[in-house]
Amino acid sequence: MGISYFEEKKIFKLDTERTTYLIGLSPEGYVGHIYYGRRLLGEGSNYLLRMQEPPYTPSVNLREKSSFLDAFPTEYPTGGIGDYRESCLDVRGESGSIGSELLFDSYRILKGKEKLAGLPASFGRQEDVETLEIICEDSILQLRAILSYSVFACCDMITRSVRIENIGSRHLKLEKVYSACLDMDNRDFEMLTLTGSWARERCIQRGRVRYGKQMVSSVRGESSHQEHPFIALVTPETTQESGEIYAMNFVYSGNFIAQAELSQYGNVRMVMGIHEDYFCWNLRPGEMFQTPEAVLTYSAQGLGRMTRNFHDFYREHIIRSPHKYGKRPVLINNWEATYFDFDSEKLVDIAKEAGKAGIEMLVMDDGWFGKRNCDDSSLGDWTVNEEKITAGLPDLVQRVNDAGLKFGIWFEPEMISPDSDLYRAHPDWAIQIKGRRPTQIRAQYVLDLSRPEVVDYAYKCIADILHCAPIAYVKWDMNRQLCDIGSSCLKEDAQGELMHRYVLGVYEMQERLVNEFPDLLLENCSGGGARFDPGMLYYSPQIWCSDDVDAVERLRIQEGTALIYPLASMGAHIGDCPNHVVGRNTPFATRGHVALAGTFGYELDITQISKEEREQIPEQVGLYHKYRPLIQGGDYYRLASWSMEKPYDCWEVAAKDKSHALVTFVQVLAQPNVHSRVIYLRGLEEKWKYRLEGTEEIYSGEELMKCGYLVPSCKGDFISFLYHFVRN
Known about the structure:
The chain is α+β, with helices and mostly antiparallel strands and 728 residues long. 20% of the residues lie in helices and 30% in strands. It contains 13 helices and 39 strands. Helix 7 (452-468) runs parallel beside helix 8 and helix 10 (551-562) runs parallel beside helix 11 (588-595). It is globular. The relative contact order is 0.09.
């Protein structure tokens, strides 16, 4: 396993445990994609590049160079020279024309992996990862492109990024610069993506790839509620257990594009990168631009294998937090309990009641600063409102600690309210187009984090609060998208850099935060799940999954999220009923079972719920702590899907050593005149015996996986069951 180069064949071979990726060179130096799929034992060959058939390569048939480029499976295609499919790189020279041509120059193979300057990216020890750098140059533009491939063999993952360098004396402009391309023959592929909106994020969407371009994207300045930086091409009839999948995910938290294009010759080009809209980057002599990282995986064993590849990779090679596998406190957040209507006494009352039930942390949400009594003021004024927090924040934190709970706090540091002291002092700190009144969303503007002084101010506000009291947790929120894309600081010819510089500013702030407060538990949030992406996971081990905590809606949201992200990264809480978003009533026990497939907590006023519900909390907290190691580190299997028109939902987490497995079954809608339902477990050892905990029932692993387990029929909607099978 690892990376090899075969000089005679001019082929690079990248091997993981189950896959092989082949790259070949044409006689002219074009870098072509040969193969990605099941592991090959031999060196491979370049015949799939079709260089021996018309129109041949330009060195043989120069008059048909464009015909060659428009069909050649290129590893990193460039625009303006005759390939009319989607390009990955568009460069405007000093003459004003667009056109670049990258040809192979050299390569190097490295043990380990270098960091990407200013960006979140995968990491690993030298024994975990090997990196190939293919260096290409455009001799006319005097431009160098370093195509980087890092191979994580045990996870069946390959990451890709590109570094563009201006090695000449002329000023260039990058008008498009993607991170990855995958050119393949079409196999009746279907495209699988995650789409939605606020309160219904990351719903699975699947459909046949048609001629032309089909994409998901965001130009909102965030990865977004609406579409997600993930794309997969799947063969027809692909299921959880069978079928082939080629998948990409983007380690980035801003504008993106993920696109599949079916060409005239039946080739599919899949690309991923920063969206070209609102993007133009100055590349002066001696400067470089680093693209974010794209994560690629291939599975020949269905969606389930793809999912477990992603889960293992993100746990081991993206998430850095010391809380990754550690005990995370069960928290209660006051947002849906009180909204803006709270004071110290109300929070302490909640903390005392929560402590009696075994809850371990109180999180004070929006409304504790400035004159923030509703959502129309004070963002940017991060000073404690002592009309609410009457004796100051250190006193409140101490009283919560005395009740036996840790203390957490909410910030929205990227935003500024028009009604704030900060805006009155620095109106130019808001992102805006000169001469045009900026558009408000949620009565707020966005801070211009392309400006170092703004980043420094926003970060200092957070740090000063965290230094004043023992605060164990921060919920970092972002409640609106970017528009009016203009900066009062950037020069006219650099306005196209704002969106990317903004994201870099967010990353700088969060990097400083986790370094200065290494024990802090950070949870990212963006109006719910609008920035649930690998870039955020690099800084925080968990992200608020959605503002909709209704247990039934969460089935669909959490299924789509868990398709690529580990369960322990999903912020999941038990909410109040009727649910504040959809008005649905669901049993307290079901809400608890659904929230177990995440970080687990409460989003309600514990002083107001019924005695019956309050008495269930200690048991729920106990279940979370009991199953936490399994949920954080086990293998996830999707057994049934309510979102795919089943009347029930079912998933399983099996221990890596196959010693036990937890199955969650939710009967969404009851049906008349039905028998028990069969569910087929996965991830067990066929020869071992397993006991269903709490009973004397014993089954072999073979029986549970091949014959299945019978879930009895029952009356009632929204009923759930937990089944814990333990090796006997």
